[in-house]
Structure formats: structure tokens, C-alpha cells
Amino acid sequence: MELDPEIADRFAAVDDHLDTVFGLDHAYSEVLRRSDEAMLPTIAVSSSVGRLLQVLVAAMGARRVLEIGTLGGYSTLWLARALPKDGQVVSLEFNPHHADVARANLASAGVGGRVEIRVGDAHASLAALIERDVAPFDLAFIDADKESYPEYLDAVVALSRPGSLIVADNVVRGGRIIERHRDDEMLQGIRVFNEALAEHPAIGPASIMQIVGHKGYDGLAFGVVTDPSARR
Ligand code: SAH
Ligand code: DHB
Ligand code: MG
């Protein structure tokens, strides 16, 4: 489904308006500018979603955040800036060029010391984190390859503590998730993820919110881990 251009313009204009209401520090636009310059795809979260991530980090009193899908470090910067000085974001990225751009961006923005980018397939990086028995994450943000969302959900649950929050981007995809018979691996991955989130024995309260703005029409998923040892 394509959005009516007039409606799409209005959604984008409201996102712009909200940037004037809240203010948007130069550091965020710099990350996007340098990501564009380095030819990265323009698929970072919107500033409104960035601010929501900060609300969640602050509300959780999070110290340890896990991100799957760094790109140029835009969402990473929103997350890192909401953390206390001794907080940490571990961000997983498959593409070494994206990781290089993100590292430079985050260093320039002054949060390089609070972010660890691990280059490699997130499946392997997650398995390594689980294997090493690292301290649990307070919040996890899933935003990489959509086909893998169901597997990422299970891995992130295993890296949680009771009360950890899981957030996932792009779970509505212009409403296409209701097109049950669509033969699209990304959509199938998201549909399975959404159902797994709803039914997961490790997860208590959960919700999916539809979101509009500069990026059109998509959605964010939220779930609170109540029993990290439970497996589906
Ligand atoms: N969170 C970013 C956007 C991430 S875009 C932001 O909002 O600013 C998705 C990223 O996931 C891309 O950089 C892509 O290279 C990465 N990715 C795709 N498949 C991956 C995988 N299997 N493991 C790790 N990262 C992956
Ligand atoms: C797209 C958007 C995203 O936010 C993302 O993480 C991956 C892909 C897209 O619109 O293609
Ligand atoms: Mg995304």
C-alpha cells in the first residue's frame, strides 16, 4: 500500500515540526550527513523514534543496551546519549564499511567510549555473547535483517534479565504484514516475529505500535522479558 502523497507530506511535516519543538542537536544531523556521504542506505530511525528510544532507556534506568543493526550509528547515538556515563551500548553490525562509518560518527559525537561495535553476522555475535555469559542487557533494540527477527528474539531473551525491555523496528511495513499470502521472506520473518513476541513464554507485557512520519508508515514492537530462561 502506497501512502497518499499529501498524507505522506503531512506525516513528514509533523516530524519536522517535532524537531523544532524538541530541538535536534547538530550531532544527530551530522551522523546522517556523514552516513549519506559514505553512501549508506537512508534507513536510520526517525528522530521521533530516536527520542522514544531515549525515553525508554531513561525510564528503564538502563546501563547496558544491545543493538542489532548499527548502520551509521544514528540510533546508536540516541541510545548512547541517554545512558549514564558508565553505561554501554553493544551494537552488532555485519557490514565493515557501516561499522567504520559508525565508529567515526560516534567518536565525533563524543560517545565512542560508551559504544562497542562488533563486526560480523549478528547470529554469530549473539551466540558468542551467550556463550561468554555476559551480564544481561537492560534493553535490546532489534533493527537488522528482517528474516532473522525470530532468531534474534530468542537470542535477546537469553541475554535478558527479568524486566529487560525488547524493542524491534519495522514490524508493520506499510501495513503489508496483514497480507498473509505475500511471498516475501522479510515480511514472513516479521510476521513470525510478531507472533513469537505475542506468544513467547519468556515475555510478559508486549505491544506493537503503528508509526507514521518521515519514513512513511511502519511500526515498533515492545516486549518485557519476565522469565529469561523460558524457551519457545
Ligand atoms: N539501527 C540503525 C539502522 C540499521 S539498518 C539506525 O536506525 O540508525 C540495518 C543494519 O543491519 C544495516 O547496517 C545492515 O548492514 C545490518 N545487518 C543486516 N544483516 C545483518 C546481520 N545478519 N548481522 C548484523 N547486521 C546486519
Ligand atoms: C528499511 C527500513 C529500516 O528501518 C530498516 O531497518 C531496514 C530497511 C527499509 O525501508 O527498507
Ligand atoms: Mg529499522
N to C succession of SSEs: HHHEHEHEHEHEHEE
CATH topology, which one? Rossmann fold
* List of distinct ligands in this structure: S-adenosyl-L-homocysteine, 3,4-dihydroxybenzoic acid, magnesium ion
Termini separation comes to: 33 Å
Widest sheet, order of strands = 3-2-1-4-5-7-6
Strand content: 15-25%
Number of separate structural domains:
1
CATH architecture, by name, is 3-Layer(aba) Sandwich
Unreliable runs: none
Would you kindly provide a brief summary of this structure?
By secondary structure, the chain is an alpha/beta fold. The chain contains eight helices and seven strands.
Topology:
Elements: H1 5-22, H2 26-37, H3 47-60, E1 64-68, H4 74-81, E2 88-93, H5 96-108, E3 115-119, H6 122-131, E4 137-142, H7 149-158, E5 160-169, H8 185-199, E6 203-213, E7 216-225
Parallel strand pairs: 1-2, 1-4, 2-3, 4-5
Antiparallel strand pairs: 5-7, 6-7
Helix pairs in contact: 2-5, 3-4, 6-7, 7-8
Bound molecules: S-adenosyl-L-homocysteine, 3,4-dihydroxybenzoic acid and magnesium ion.
The site of S-adenosyl-L-homocysteine has 19 residues, from helix 4 and strand 2.
Could you walk me through the main structural features you see in this protein, from its secondary elements to its overall organization?
Helix 2 runs antiparallel to helix 5 and helix 7 runs parallel beside helix 8. Strand 2, helix 5 and strand 3 form a beta-alpha-beta unit. Helix content is 43%, strand content 23%. The protein has one domain: Vaccinia Virus protein VP39 (Rossmann fold, 3-Layer(aba) Sandwich). The radius of gyration is 17 Å and the shape is globular. The longest helix has 18 residues. It has 232 residues and is of the alpha/beta class. The protein binds S-adenosyl-L-homocysteine, 3,4-dihydroxybenzoic acid and magnesium ion. 3,4-dihydroxybenzoic acid binds next to loops. The site of magnesium ion has 4 residues, from loops.
